[in-house]
Amino acid sequence: MASSGRGRRELDTPTKNRIIGYWRATGNAAEAGRKENVKPRVAQYVVQHYKERGTTANKPRTGRPSKLTEYDKREIVRVARKNRRMPLAEITNNIATKVSVATVRRVLAARGYHRRVAKRVPFINHKHKQLRYAWGRMYRKWKRRRWRHVIFSDECYICLGDKRGRIFITRRTDELLLEECLVPTFKQSPIHIMVWGCIAEGRKGPLIVVDYPGGKGGGLNSEVYQQQILEGPLLSFYNEIREERHFAYFQQDGAPSHTSKSTTNWLQKNKIKLAYHPPNSPDLTPIEPVWSKLKSIIRRQQRTPTTVEELKAAALAAWEEIPLDLINKHISRMPDRVAAVLAARGGHTGF
């Protein structure tokens, strides 16, 4: 038995459980107390407590008074919200009352805030948001069957050993896409290889490893884009989809080689109908998660490619492994993407 207070004995849980067991067997609380060398009145109190609460456990106690006032707790939340990237240890130095990091963590957790890895998203400015919102309004009436006629295309840089550091921020569960909880990403160079691919519902187009000299002026210019991608692989696939489904649209991003005068003339000459895609918006195209799948397949290979040629071969082999079910799943959610960007007023979506 444990002691509590001045001269008072507090029964331990096993003793109280034995009293309850004897009482339930005989119906005599006083006799149960005498069996455990406990005063009859105390045993009767244990039984009464059990009848009322269904347990022999003690009621929760207040414990030591909190060192923080409600104002202190609100101050912790204010500091964390003002600078989402501030470590918890630094928050303790920015409040009046000195407390431990564990206390700060408990205060924030009680209000739904936790340290999380910030979601990386493309950088979008006010103009980008306007264009994204306009895109949503343009396609808000498109049903799933209409998206079946769209060929989605994109380029992808594949670079081995790209290890990005994680940035922790403080947020609630519903603040995933809040501006100050995001980490913008920017286009990076140099790259190991560039590939171009396209998809449509139920179909996987060709994957092309782009061959370009690199360096200043030697990237994916209009000439390379037209000769290596549009004039062969894209035109053939576009005609197949158009013949199979009566009409087709081709979606590409706003890269300079895609929107140049010569490329625009080529598309018009070959009667390629375009579907608009806003800038810096990989979340609004279903091919982006396909690229993620492609890279994951390459990363899990037992033997990591060590040369450019091996990397090219690995990319082509990984493209063949991508299932059509994955492509169809993401294309079927295009109406959800439209709804999400409209709800965000052109801001970031969860895709």
Automatic annotation (TrEMBL):
Domain Transposase Tc1-like: 73-140
Highest taxon in the source lineage: Eukaryota
Domain Tc1-like transposase DDE, chain residue ranges per copy: 253-311
Membrane-spanning ranges: none
Pfam families xrefs: DDE_3, HTH_Tnp_Tc3_2
MF (Gene Ontology): DNA binding
UniProt record, GO biological process: DNA integration; DNA transposition
UniProt name for this protein: Tc1-like transposase DDE domain-containing protein
